[in-house]
Design brief:
alpha+beta, 8 helices, globular, TAT_signal, Lipoprotein
C-alpha cells in the first residue's frame, strides 16, 4: 500500500543503491576521490550569505527574514540541504486530512507543512548518509560497505499573537490523543499510523518535543518515522525524519542531532 512515508524514502533508496554499487569493493579510496571529498567539505564549511544569522527574539518574522535563519548548506558539515522540496515531497495543506482532527498537527509535521496560520513559513530538506565496513562479504569475498541513509523535511514558521505557543500545545495534545494510531491522507496518499509515542525532547529553544511514529508499510509490517519540534520565541521549527533501513524494518534510529542543532542555533 502506498503511503507518504514510503514515498519520501524513494529518493533515499536510490541514493543508497547507487552508493552501494560504487562502494561494494572495499579498500582505500583513490587520491582523486579523496581530493574531491576534501573540496566538498571545504565548500560546505565556507560562509554563505545569511549563514550565522539568528532570528530576533519574540517577533513574527517575514518570509525574507525566515529565509535568512532557515538551514543553509554552510550550516552543516555533512549531507545536502535543499532550499525547495522536491515535487515528490511537496504537499499542500488542503491535501492533508485525518480521521481524527486532533491528529492533524502530526501529519502537518510529517509533510513539512506549517501549523495553524503562520505569518510566514519556509521549507527545507536535508539528506545525508554514513558508511561503515560491513560484517558480511561480497560474492567474491571482497569487503562490503553498509550504507545508512537519513532524510529530514523541515518547516520553519513564525507566528503573531501567541500562535507558536498554541501550535506547540496542539502538538503535545496530539501525541496523547493519537497514541493508538490513526488514518491519514496526504497529497492523495493514504497512510496508516499504527502508534504514536513521545521521545526525549531536544535541547535548545524555549520548548521542545520529540515524537516516534509507527507507519504501516504493508501486511503486518511497520516502519518508523521521527518528528522533532522546537519553539524559540514566536518561531517554530519542525523536523520530519526518516531512515531508509528503519522505514523498512521498524528498527530504532537517531535523528541527526547536528542538523537539528544547526537549525535551532539560527533561531537565536
Amino acid at each position: 500500500m502506498s503511503s507518504t512515508a514510503v514515498r519520501r524514502t524513494a529518493l533515499a533508496a536510490s541514493a543508497a543503491a547507487l552508493a552501494l554499487l560504487v562502494t561494494a569493493c572495499g579498500g582505500s579510496s583513490d587520491d582523486d576521490s579523496a581530493a574531491g571529498d576534501d573540496k566538498a567539505k571545504a565548500e560546505r564549511s565556507a560562509p554563505a550569505e545569511g549563514a550565522g544569522e539568528s532570528a530576533p527574539a519574540g517577533k513574527a518574522l517575514t518570509a525574507a527574514e525566515l529565509e535568512k535563519v532557515a538551514l543553509a548548506q554552510a550550516d552543516v558539515k555533512s549531507g545536502e540541504v535543499a532550499t525547495e522540496l522536491s515535487a515528490d515531497d511537496q504537499v499542500a495543506k488542503d491535501q492533508i486530512s485525518a480521521d481524527d482532527k486532533a491528529c492533524l498537527p502530526l501529519v502537518y509535521v510529517q509533510g513539512a507543512v506549517a501549523q495553524g496560520e503562520p505569518a510566514a513559513d519556509v521549507q527545507r530538506s536535508w539528506q545525508g548518509q554514513t558508511e561503515s565496513p560491513s560484517e558480511s562479504k561480497g560474492p567474491d569475498g571482497q569487503d562490503m560497505t553498509d550504507i545508512d541513509v537519513n532524510k529530514i523535511l523541515l518547516n520553519v514558521a513564525s507566528y503573531a499573537d501567541g500562535g507558536a505557543e498554541e501550535a506547540m500545545a496542539g502538538l503535545k495534545a496530539a501525541v496523547e490523543k493519537c497514541a493508538g494510531g490513526f488514518d491519514a491522507t496526504a497529497g492523495g496518499d493514504k497512510m496508516r499510523v499504527t502508534e504514536v509515542s513521545g521521545g526525549d525532547a531536544p535541547k535548545g529553544g524555549d520548548e521542545g518535543l520529540a515524537v516516534n511514529i509507527g507507519v504501516a508499510t504493508g501486511g503486518d509490517k511497520s516502519g518508523l518515522m521521527k518528528l522533532v519540534v522546537v519553539r524559540k520565541g514566536a518561531t517554530l521549527a519542525t523536523f520530519s525524519a526518516v531512515n531508509l533501513s528503519s522505514m523498512m524494518t521498524g528498527a530504532e534510529f537517531e535523528v541527526p542531532a547536528d542538523v537539528v542543532d544547526a537549525q535551532v542555533a539560527k533561531l537565536g
